[in-house]
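Structural biology now treats backbone shape like a language. To illustrate, our science desk offers a sequence and the tokens encoding its fold:
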Amino acid sequence: MSKKVTQRIDVDPSLNLSARQVGELVYRLINVGLEDARQTIVRNEGDVVGAEMATSLNFTSVVACPVNSGADEGEHAVKLGIAATNRCLVIVSGGVADYVYDDGVEVELFDWDNYRDETAEGRADMRVSAHFKDLAESAGVPVQR
């Protein structure tokens, strides 16, 4: 049985941060915590049961709302998601791809042209790491075993 839960967390930053900055920090903290939980499961050390419960959560959004007396919070809400904090820009020029990305974003670049050339000549068996399996499979990209 699946149910949606809305959790409200009031934050009182000691620095002069905007609602968006606080929301982005909370979003990053969630992702760091989830990665730590995944590593706990992989290593089978620590609170594995708690880690399994944590990784079963699907955070669909983080909404940062400044608390203004007399103002409607909804009109000032800043909805955050993966696009707001985890970005990667791929730049291709002259057949060469490069990228820039936000802190905390894992990036792996796969080049079909190089893959076909290298494997046809028997020089390499290029595959993306297994960590990117779900993304790679959806695009038909070969994955390491």
